[in-house]
Amino acid sequence: MEELLLSRWQFGITTIYHFLFVPLTLGLSLIVAILETIYVRTGNEMYKQQTKFWGKLFLINFAMGVVTGIVQEFHFGMNWSEYARFMGDIFGAPLAMEALTAFYLESVFIGLWIFGWERIPKMLHAVSIWIVALATNLSAFWILTANSFMQSPVGYVINNGRAEMTDFVALITNPYVFYQFPHTVLSGLVTAGFFVLAISAYHLLRKTHLDFFRASFKLGLVWTTVSLFLLMGSGHAQTQFMAKAQPMKLAAAEALWETANPAPFAIAAVIDEQNKTNTVELKIPAMLSLLANNDPNTAVKGIKDIEKEYIAKYGPGNYVPPVTPVFWSFRIMVAAGSVMMLVVLAAGFFWWRGQLEAKTCVLKAVLWSLPLPYIANSTGWYVTEGGRQPWIVFGLQKVDQAVSPSVGAISIWISLIGFTLVYALLAAAAVYLVQKFVRQGPVSTPVNTNKPAAKGATLWT
């Protein structure tokens, strides 16, 4: 049990570190590509320097995402060898496709983009960052394809104690991935939007580089508002699908112990997991039925009834996830999203009225809201993974069956402490570099007297 707990902590810490950088990479790559496209089409020098400024921050984040992501794969051989043995035939396919169709494209074209300024045609240079952006999001698709199999297995057969793929098309068309992938990408768009908004708000408050960051704030505001509405819609659709595909996860997220018709939505609750009840509840009648089924007069299965079904299907055991952390993680995610929406709508209202820069309280609210998308991303993934417990592959393999049998607690402690310290140093370095360039802002450079700037151009770096 000690080895299992340590292995889970190690993978959890590695994953959280990694996912601090992934959403921003997904969204910011597209923003940089759009900015460079505007520059190529208009010839406006400011958009070129917008591309360079946000691109510099994108590269720092991209590098951290790559470093933290590669280490995750080693965990399967280190601490989760039974999972690798059981799932290798299936899990390896999308990971290989990620390397072949996404990672190689990213590696080649990000180098071309970094070193190609003023060396290759502008159109080709813009195409390079578009390929990086699309490959980055394609990478997310392949990873989520593998994760979706763990949530809802399809296209497989069990042979000699291993899950073997029988239908690759079924794997990549798994209904679960078509709800999970859009929600993840939209989370990245929102994260990138708030990143741009917060940094722009910082400079607007300082009254520095006003024209530059007014343009950035405008782009970020439109981008984030649209992305937030789409994100909430995709989250609602994913919740309704979860009610059918993983009813236990939904019941745990709502701390719904008994089947109810109609089912209430619990705003808050004091949960007694030992006795499988809520001692105190603040709830909205029939709201869960409406959210899950678009009908307030429908039943939603409770944890106790679902557990009985699982015992009958999978044999004796405890099939109830950790209800309290799943329940509160879901609410933290929803609360963070709601606050983000309020902040964006307030900023949009005062921007529309031309009063944004005079409303320093609104700009400060935007600035200090930057952690919210990261909190929402992390708690959302906890609901996804924690709500699947005790399964690592739903219905096929439990977490305690997946851990490496021959790795001792001391070895895990050493690697756990080592990875955590190294990641902490890398994260500190990344934060230092980002805040250094953010505070510095776009820096003007001397004009090359041998090559006069175009009329009306603004020179930035």
From TrEMBL:
- Keyword Nuclease annotated: no
BP-aspect Gene Ontology terms: aerobic electron transport chain
Compartmental location: Cell membrane
Q: Give the Pfam families listed for this entry.
A: Cyt_bd_oxida_I
Q: Which residues cross the membrane?
A: 20-41, 53-71, 91-115, 127-144, 185-205, 217-237, 328-353, 365-384, 410-434
Membrane topology type, per the record? Multi-pass membrane protein
Q: Which InterPro entries match?
A: Cyt-d_ubiquinol_oxidase_su_1 (IPR002585)
Naming one, the record's GO cellular component terms include:
plasma membrane
The GO terms describing molecular function are: electron transfer activity; heme binding; metal ion binding; oxidoreductase activity, acting on diphenols and related substances as donors, oxygen as acceptor
Q: Which UniProt keywords apply?
A: Cell membrane, Electron transport, Heme, Iron, Membrane, Metal-binding, Transmembrane, Transmembrane helix, Transport
Q: What is its main location?
A: membrane
Q: PANTHER family attached here?
A: CYTOCHROME BD UBIQUINOL OXIDASE SUBUNIT 1 (PTHR30365:SF15), CYTOCHROME D UBIQUINOL OXIDASE (PTHR30365)
Family to which this protein belongs: Belongs to the cytochrome ubiquinol oxidase subunit 1 family.
What is the name listed in the Swiss-Prot or TrEMBL entry for this protein?
A: Cytochrome bd-I ubiquinol oxidase subunit 1 apoprotein
- Can you name the source organism? Sporomusa malonica
